[in-house]
Write a structure and sequence with these properties.
This protein is of the alpha/beta class. The chain is 45% helix and 17% strand. Helix 2 packs parallel to helix 3. The N and C termini lie close together (7 Å).
Length: 326
């Protein structure tokens, strides 16, 4: 079992962004020293929170992340030209010595598509075409590509990636059709761990595994993204973390597609937020392990949480939870 952290680079607009980013790089460096496996960045445009962009963040985190894998979790690929993405991530792969993962998804916020002039109805077709073009460019050979949205004429990627064939591509997906697409196109399905429906993960994993068998593919990783905070007792974890988690989830609920996260927040707390003692977290993570997941990625802090709390949680988790899965 591997453990990674989602770099929480979303902040209130009235916050001191420079100071928060310096704290974040220190937190990532600390996580690397503690033995965490990976660190992941966030992508949104015109957000209701100050959200530095993921490619720039990944470049900054290369120097402070030790041997951790560095991924985008998740890049909204339909809003980017895949030629741009292929060359940027090949550059990051060179800068990091081959530690990069490209995580992509289709997106869900209507105003982002409207502002960037992209028809939201085309997002899944763009995702499919973009992944195929990126892989072709990372082959190192001249590419002829004639797609609905993108065309390349006998050109090759201007930057060769370190990893043969390029960085692995993880695909974030929620619905069953999207999970099948992740099996067909991706090296891994980046599974969301925040559904209040207890049948969501078993049912969608069955769809994923069936599609993998159909397409003859084997994933390189089985990651799941969760929310997690570790304290000596579960009561202390809830007391310390829940107000900050509620604040962040309520901010997401300002978007129509995520309004349910406010309306069903109590269900999220019961079923998906991992706020607890080391023993409780070991039990919950063993549940994910039993389903077949082998890489737990979690956000270590939420809006307004003091960085010292996040550091204490990461330290306790590394000391008392991670050894149970060594």
């Amino acid at each position: 079992m591997k453990f990674g952290i989602m770099a929480p680079h979303q902040y209130p607009f009235d916050d001191d962004l420079g100071a928060r980013l310096r704290e974040l790089t220190g937190l990532v460096e600390h996580a690397a020293d503690l033995g965490y496996h990976s660190v992941w960045t966030i992508n949104h445009f015109l957000s209701n929170l100050a959200t530095p962009q993921p490619i720039s963040m990944m470049a900054r985190l290369i120097e402070c992340s030790g041997e951790m894998r560095i991924g985008s979790g998740i890049l909204l690929l339909p809003l980017f030209n895949p030629v741009h993405v292929a060359e940027e991530f090949a550059t990051l792969d060179q800068l990091s010595g081959g530690r990069v993962v490209l995580g992509v998804a289709a997106g869900y916020r209507e105003h982002e598509f409207a502002a960037l002039g992209v028809d939201m109805a085309s997002r899944f077709r763009r995702l499919d075409e973009g992944v195929r073009l990126i892989r072709a460019l990372w082959s190192g050979e001249p590419v002829d590509f004639e797609g609905e949205f993108y065309q390349v004429r006998a050109d090759r990627c201007g930057v060769p990636p370190v990893q043969p064939g390029g960085p692995p591509i993880y695909i974030g997906a929620g619905g069953k059709k999207s999970v099948r697409r992740a099996a067909r196109l991706g090296d891994a399905w980046y599974a969301p761990g925040n559904s209040p429906n207890p049948r969501y993960l078993p049912d969608h994993l069955a769809v994923y595994d069936e599609a993998l068998a159909e397409y003859g593919r084997t994933p390189v990783d089985r990651p799941i993204g969760v929310e997690l905070y570790c304290a000596p007792t579960t009561e202390q974890a809830i007391e310390e973390a829940l107000p900050y988690a509620r604040r962040e989830y309520y901010s997401y609920a300002e978007y129509p597609a995520l309004r349910w996260q406010r309306d069903r927040f109590d269900e999220l707390v019961r079923h998906t937020l991992l706020l607890g003692s080391p023993d409780l977290l070991i039990e919950r993570i063993r549940g994910y392990q039993a389903l077949g997941f082998d890489h737990v990625i979690f956000r270590p802090m939420w809006l307004g949480m003091p960085i010292e709390q996040a550091r204490r949680s990461l330290e306790l988790f590394a000391r008392e939870v991670m050894p149970a899965f060594a």
